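so the lab meeting is tmrw and i was supposed to have these ready like two days ago... anyway. pasting both below. for each one the top line is the aa sequence and the line under it is the structure tokens. i havent really looked at them closely yet so no promises
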Amino acid sequence: MIPVSLLRRVAILVATAAICCHLTPTEAAGLRKTVLVTDARNPMQVEVLADGRLIYVERGGAVKLWNPATKTSEVVWQRDVEARNNSATPATGGAWEAGLLGLAVDPAFARNAWVYLYYSPRGGKEFHVSRLTLSGSPAKLADEKILLTIPVDLEVCCHYAGGLGFDGHGNLLVATGDNTVGFESDAFAPTDYREGRRLFDSARSAGNANDLRGKILRIHPEPDGSVTIPKGNLFPPGTPGTRPEIYVMGCRNPWRFSVDAKSDTLYFGDVGPDAAAATEARGPAGFDEFNRTRTAGNFGWPFLLADNRPYRQFDFATKQSGPAQDPAKPVNLSPNNTGPKELPPAQPAWMFYPGGPSSRFPQFGSGGRSAAAGPVYHFDSKLASASRLPAEYDRCLFLYEWMRNWIVVVKLDAQGERVEIARFAPELTFKRPTDLKIGADGALYVIEFGSGWENNADAQIVRVEPAE
């Protein structure tokens, strides 16, 4: 255990200095990975049902149900989706990273058996957020009701995000990416306002309050398959030129998030651009972000990044730079913007890190970046489960990196403030962690996407639990 005096000193230093890792690793040394699923093909999200079954989605369009009794998976739903493989050229391959991306089960699943999916149907130019019912023997998903349709441009890549999840009030959150080509802006913000360059302009999507892309949406599913808008979203219903479904805007690719129901806090990772260094003429170097919020907000992209470092509006025709964005009053002057020009104030990132080593957060290492936010663990002393994580992980937020193959834990104090950061189970390997969930048994369930970019023979779903 960490000495209380040391915890206090670390808490004081958090705001001004990099955090040292003091989280005791002895419990992690007693953890093991129990492999459950080995035949998943491009698995994206998983949910752990109360009876121990796993339901998970594959990018190619299959929903599968794993049975702990038989240790086998069965297809319970299959759809032909728009999901071309990643060997296509990114700027021209179309539907690059699209497909069946998101999954959530209803908080009242034991009563209603409702399952929610986020996918791009074949031949369309949109994503569907749908609700289906799991029933029958053998079990199947049926009775689809489309809750929300999100128009996208599938002819070019990328950034579709796609994560689904519920908060503690029964609201469904939907993560959507900026759906913008990021390869022709010198790794800075893609705000190309020239005629015919709409697909290279993230101001049309993430920076547009009248567009559902580059956002985390929040809706409330109703029993009849309709949705209502919860109070507290960023734009109240009826606000001219805005969409009321928006909870968070200004995201590039917030592909994984979680909501801690006990604190009502949304945590999300956002995959950032790749500029190696800042320039006066353009803006900041590239960073990935970990963000947290208890209220609706604008997180800046494509006008600001990290701790509200501003981009200048760059004229891609003349190669001249305009004024820098003001975090307090960001403006969207794109001709492709269909919403208001004046946007809500930008919120700075909670944590952010570059491609190289980070002086603020050395625990994050270096290399490629693909930030993802997982659940907060709350230890339950009354839970009779040999699989539950130890009490030392109580109030720990799990963060993970698809590119860097790590999982870290962020110890939070009673007010939800960051106390320290440490690598989770450093003696274990995690091959491209893609989704993390805490089961009713208190164990951590991890999708390992596998060692390559797609179609990996070593993809699997594992349970991380005490070794004895």
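ok protien two:
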Amino acid sequence: MNIYVGNLSRNITETELRDAFAAHGNVQSAAVIKDKMTGESRGFGFVEMPNREEALKAIAALNGRDLKGRNLTVNEAKPRTDSSPRGGGGGGFGRRY
């Protein structure tokens, strides 16, 4: 199960994030999302736990819990949707005179 973790401290490491979830079950991966330009944490990440039951227990245990001075927001990650329109499209540049 893919788990969204929000409101992360800017200085949390992926190891610290993994350890917080590993206390509740097997963690396949943990990632802190970083800004491409600065390399700093964007304040959220994702944890992958292969066992759904363990993942649900981890969500229940960690949602709202303080980790490095921040109360976590933890829930099942929703599939990514592309909300930006695709394709070309010229804009109207006004009337031709």
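from a quick look at the 2nd one: Residues 52-62 form the longest helix (11 residues). The mean pLDDT is 89. will dig more after coffe
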